[in-house]
Amino acid sequence: MEKFISGFNQSFIEGDRWLMYVKGIGVTLEVAAVALLLGIVLGVIVAIVRTLHDQQRPGQKHALLEVINKIAQLYTTVIRGTPLMVQLLIMYFVIFANTRNAVGVAMLTFGINSGAYVAEIIRGGIMSVDKGQMEAARSLGLSYVPAMRFVVIPQAIKNILPALGNELIALLKDTSLVTVIGVRDLTKAAQLIQGKTYQALFPFVGIAIVYLLMVMIIAALIGVLERRLAASDRR
Amino acid sequence: MIDVKDLRKSFGDNEVLCGITEHINKGEKVVVIGPSGSGKSTFLRCLNLLEMPTSGEILFKGVSMTDPATDINLMRRSMGMVFQHFNLFNNLSIIDNMTLAPVQLKLRTKKEAVDEAMELLGRVGLQDKADSYPSQLSGGQKQRIAIVRSLAMHPEVMLFDEPTSALDPEMVGEVLDVMRHLADTGMTMVVVTHEMGFAREVGSRIMFMDEGKITEQGTPAELFGNPKNPRTQDFLSKVL
Questions:
Q1: Were both Cys, which of A41, A151, B80, B218 would link to B158 (CB 3.0–4.6 Å)?
Q2: How far does the CA of residue B230 sit from the closest CA of chain A (Å)?
């Protein structure tokens, strides 16, 4: 019992070590938040390109759109086809070998990675809206953009939101990989403390609980948002 | 009003419309009948270019719909369309469904559009549904609203793509009633339907389509009373 208490003290109390966890949480949330924003921006752009491309009239191919669509396809293929950890290593040690701003590289890498998944989520959401909705809007004389904006996208959002929530949760947990490029996130804090105190139980189980709590809070927030959207739906 | 010249449409290797040349005059009520898979719906959907014809030409009031230089959105404003599955905008209330296009296209102010929509809803007895959402309505109510939603654009021709095929039998009558009244106002109508009673009563011309061609047409009396083509005879003997 005594050993247990001293382990707890060494892991959290001595030398104000709890502060390292708090700072780690800050870095983890920061990376996840910036990456999510970047991912949504990238994802929306890629989804627009791919949807526009797929909804062209057959026989009327736009040359520029063809090229951009190919790039977008390549992007999703490469990002989804390689491990996130490998992407992180390549970004930090190859592409940005000259910078020591590991946090910035982590944000960028996670953003680019998330964008590929978000793009597919948005594209799927748009495609899940019944084709007749677009046809009816067009038959009234509305052009493509207002038909998307007022009819298709509002309906797509309801399908997109739950999947986007999952993506955010996955992203938050995946940020623990940034330890490989030396970012001092929550996981790194636990590793450092373990190295110093030889205590493994409290640091690692402790951060597992912190991750779990963060995910539960996000899930609850998404739940509230979904219910609010469903209310306006009155089904 | 609508001129169709050698209209052809293929999906892959499957030729659905095999050269249709036809003229539809103002005020006509053309009813297109025929077995399923004969190309009726595709023909109708080509008229407002929801399907892009593979070849041939469609002229609406003398303007080529198929010419890439034509502003297709402008042309579609004058061609109302009613779908088999209603296609009311699920995310919008009934009143918003009806005012979206007129307001967005700056044809009317919000207030004018709302007033007109309420008047149109009154005509089909659904004023009390203005603030409802499509999911709260029955099929018959949805289709009546889909019809007046098109009318809010003041179209010159109305296209009906099997408007009663997705309805429960007891709701078919209320939709046909609305269409009958519309016909009485002199609206030009092209109707694809399996409702032979409606075709006979309201149609000014019946077209029989089979395998991508219009194989026989005439007044209801001619076509229903004395069909010439053996395929038409066969089809009518099965549905009547």
A1: B80
A2: 36
